[in-house]
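Troubleshooting entry. The earlier prediction with alpha-D-galactopyranose gave an output that would not parse, so I re-checked the input for stray whitespace and re-submitted. Clean input:
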Amino acid sequence: MKLTKNFFFATVIVSLIMTACNNSSEEKKDTPVTETTSKTGITRSDFGNVDNKPVYLYTLTNAKGDQVKITNYGGIVTSWVSPDKKGNRTSIVLGFDSLRNYLAGHPYFGALVGRYGNRIAKGKFKIGDNTYTLATNNGANHLHGGIKGFDKQVWDATVANDAVPELSLSYTSKDMEEGYPGNLKVNVTYTLTDDDGLQIEYNAETDKPTVLNLTNHSYFNLTGDPSNSILDHEMMINANYYTPVDTGLITTGELKAVKGTPFDFNTPEKIGSRIAQVGGNPGGYDHNFVLNRTDSSLQLAVTVTDSVSGRKLQVFTTQPGVQFYTGNFLDGSIKGSDGKPFNKNCAFCLETQHFPDSPNQPKFPTTLLKPGEKYHSVTMYKLSVE
Ligand code: GLA
């Protein structure tokens, strides 16, 4: 069984390698999105203005006609339109078609998260003898980069249309932004492959020792209609351990075996089959899974399938962990551009990452980045229809 599994992962890797805050500023305009043709490549339309900087919406189209829309405001993936088994094309991620909705506040829909994905307890950590105090924006804790994290910044964009559409986003985070030390240069490249893979490559460098944990916070609903819950989706997570949390959702430092718990997704299980046993307030999965891996190559972490639409999502990553979140805080108060409410459990997130609160947990893999070092990670969300 183990051999077969390892062989399967090896095959997947080989085949992959081969085939491949509140905003202080106001929105100045809210230009409607220009319809793009289904031609392969990348097009740009005006999306508005933030911090006196122009914001665009980029449409990446692959040879199959899959379309991913990404804005340079927060590096947000606003939609990913792909066919279901009957050929109906709908978006499988939560998002809005107007910048105004994003500026009104949202729980990181599709956004690039940094400098630190998930929570840092009490917003404090130490590097050597220096204690750093971060902005706190989640009770007493720091969440997803603070008050004005990377999800609320306007990134510089460059596009490439060579073999497949590629959007490269850059942002320089100044020394002590949100309390983090070091001037940090970040580059994130989104690539849409012809076999419906959305690859996200993260690179960064600093001029002072700092901590870093970059991720993307897309919310998926494989039915393509967020009025359906995701509790019937089947999920496999390649993880024998997870990191338990306290009532404030702060990791306790323990690595707990998933065996015999509702966290065991080593064999496919419906997301909803044991969710009531997970507990917590408002209840549901909001946990980091420790991925089974022997090295830091791109490996299969998660597979999710929806039998009704026939869609399958596979997540490959070089990261040690993945935050599985079942949209527990969604309560219908935020509505999609079509007016339909985003209710609890109408989407799931798979935030590939280092473990939450690693800067305060010496036993977790380090998130320290020093001058001269290069931060690099890759995650691929791969869609198919069965
Ligand atoms: C992450 C966190 C959740 C929640 C969402 C955003 O997944 O772990 O607790 O903050 O982001 O709402």
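This one parsed fine. The pocket of alpha-D-galactopyranose is lined by residues 107-108, 118, 143, 249, 286, 323, 325, 329, 349, 351 (CB under 6 Å).
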